[in-house]
Amino acid sequence: MQLLLKSVDFAARAHRDQRRKGPADEPYINHPIEVSRLIVECEPDTAEDVLCAALLHDVIEDCGATHGEIAACFTENIANIVLEVSDDKALPRDERKAMQIQLAPRLSNDAKLVRLADKIANVGAMLTDTPIGWDRTQILYYVDWAENVIAPCRSVSQRLSDRFDAIARDVRAWHARDGDGEKTGF
C-alpha cells in the first residue's frame, strides 16, 4: 500500500500543471487514477507494481521523468512497465500512434493491462469530456485506432476487454448521426 500511495503522490506532483483536453478542464491526475482503478476493478488480484505503473504511465512521455528516476524511486519492474507504454515524443504524432499498434503485441502482460485500461479511459472520455475541437470523424477514428492498439492486449483480461467493447459501442452509438447531423441514440 505504501508503494501505491507513493505512486499517487509522484504522479500528482508530475502532472500538477496539466489538465485534460475536454471542456471540463479536469486535472490530468484523474486519468492515471482512473486507469489504475479500472485495472483493480476488473482484475482485483493484480500486482501492486502494475497498479503503480498504471498511476505513473504518462510521467515519462508527458512530464519528463526518466526510467532511471522511476526505478530509483520505485522498482525496476515498475519503471520497465512505464517505459513500455510510453510514446517517444521525439517522433511525429502519427508515427507515435502507428508505433502503439506495431508494438502492442510485444508488450509484457503487465504493460498490456495498463495499455488496455488506458484506452478504456481515453475512449470513455469521448462520452464524458470530449477534447475541445474534436468532431465526429476524429472521435470515431480515435475509437477505431484504440481498438487496433488493444487488439493484442485483450488476452490479458476478458473483463477489461468487455469493458472496452461496451464503451466503444456506446461512443459509436452516441456519435451516430442521422441525415440532418443531429445525434441519435441516447
Automatic annotation (TrEMBL):
Instruction: State whether keyword Glycosyltransferase applies.
Output: no
Question: Per its UniProt record, what PROSITE patterns does this chain match?
Answer: HD (PS51831)
Keywords tagged on the record: Hydrolase
What Gene Ontology molecular function terms does this protein carry? guanosine-3',5'-bis(diphosphate) 3'-diphosphatase activity
Record-linked SMART domains: HDc
Name all HD domain ranges. 28-123
UniProt keyword Metal-binding present: no
Which protein is depicted? Phosphohydrolase
Q: What is the organism field in this record?
A: Thalassospira mesophila
Q: What is the lineage of its organism?
A: Bacteria, Pseudomonadati, Pseudomonadota, Alphaproteobacteria, Rhodospirillales
